[in-house]
Amino acid sequence: MLDLSRLAKALASERRLGGHDLEPLAVKGLAHDHVRLKGTGLLLRIPKQSQFGFRVADNLSYQAACFERVAASGHGTRLSAVLPPSDLLPMGALVVEEIEGRPPALPDDLPAIAVAMAKVHALPLPATEARAPLEDHRDPLAGALAEIERQAVYLGEAGLDPASLEQLNAELDWARAEARRGAGDQAITLVLTDTHPGNFLIRPDGQAVIVDLEKALYGSPGIDLAHATVYSSTTWDTDVHAVLSVEEVAGFYRAYLAAAGPDLAGRLRPWLLPMRRVLLLRALTWCAKWSVLHRRSALDLKQKAETTEDWSAENTDPALIAHVAGRVSDFLSPACLRRMRGEWLDSPSLESLIGPA
C-alpha cells in the first residue's frame, strides 16, 4: 500500500516536486496509485505493476512514450517528468498534468469521446523504425489475437459455467478463422487501447481528455471505438456506469466516422464489427486470466522475481478487488455473454444500425 512518508522522502531532492503536500486520489485502477502534488497542477502516477509484464525501466519508458505521443492530439494528459526507480520508488513514477474535469456522463458525452479519439487517430503515422518503444500491430487482428491466446490459456481453470465456455470458444473459433484470412487493407494509426469511459475526463468546455495512457500502440482504431462502448467497459467504472442500447452505440460510431473524415472512415468501416468482437474477446479472456491469478494470490518468490505483473490481493485496495470480482463474474456469466454477443447475433444488428460505408 502507498506510504506517503516514503514518497515525500523520494521527492525531497526534486526541486520542483519536493516540499509539497501530498494527497492520494481515490484508487480506481489496478495498476497505479495517483497522488496530487497540491498547488502544482501535477499528479504522480506511481506504478504498482506492469500489466504487460515489462521490466521496471521498460515500463516507465513505454508509458512516457504513450503520454508524449498522445499529447500531440490535444486530447491527452501532458507528461512533465519521469522519476527513475529508487529504493523509495521501486517502480519509479511519472509526473503528469492534472486534468480539471468530471467523469463522462453516458450517452451524452459519447460524441466528445468520439472527437477525442478521431484527433488521436489522425496524428501522423511515424515510419516503422520510429514507432518503438510502442508496440506495432501491423496486422491488428494477429496482434490482438496473440494477446487473446495468451489469456485464453486460463479459461479451463477459471471455473466457468459450461454455457459460458461454449460461447467463448465459439468467439475464439471465429477470431482464429478471421485472423487466418488476414488483415487486408486495414487502417493503422496510433491507438489508445484502454478506452473504457472511466479513463476519460470531460473539461468544463466539453472537451474529452484521455488520462490513462499505459497501453497505447500502433494498430486498429476499431479497438478504441469498441472498448469505449462495450458493456464490459461502460459498467466497469462506478463513476461512469451506463448500459447503452445498440442504437446509442451505433450513434457513437456514426459520430466518430463523421469526425474521422471520409478517408479513414471508408477504410475503417468494414472492420468496425470484427474489431469489436476481437476487443470483447480480449476483455473477456482478460477477465478469466484475472480470476485465476487473483485466486493464486500467494505468489511464490520465483514468480515475484521474474515478473512485474502482480494481480494479488495484497497489491490493491480490497474494495476495488471486490468491485472487479463482481464485474468479472457478471461479464463471464452465460446470460451476460449472450447479451453482449447479441450485437451481431440479433436483429437489428449493430452493423446495420451504423449504416453503410
Percentage of residues in DSSP E strands = 5-15%
Helix tally equals: 14
Largest beta-sheet characterization: 5 strands, antiparallel
Please report the distance between the alpha carbons of the first and last residues. Answer: 50 Å
Global shape: globular
Overall average residue pLDDT: 92
What would you say this structure looks like, in words?
- This protein is an alpha+beta fold and 357 residues long.
- 46% of the residues lie in helices and 10% in strands.
- It is built from 14 helices and 9 strands.
- The chain has helices at 4-11, 56-71, 110-121, 140-152, 162-181, 221-229, 231-234, 246-260, 262-268, 272-295, 301-306, 318-331, 334-345, 350-354; strands spanning 22-24, 32-37, 42-47, 79-83, 93-97, 189-191, 200-202, 208-210, 217-219.
- Strands 1-2-3-5-4 form a 5-stranded antiparallel beta sheet, with helices on one face.
- Strand 1 (22-24) and strand 2 (32-37) form a beta hairpin.
- Helix 4 (140-152) runs parallel beside helix 10.
- The termini are far apart.
- The model has no long low-confidence stretch (mean pLDDT 92).
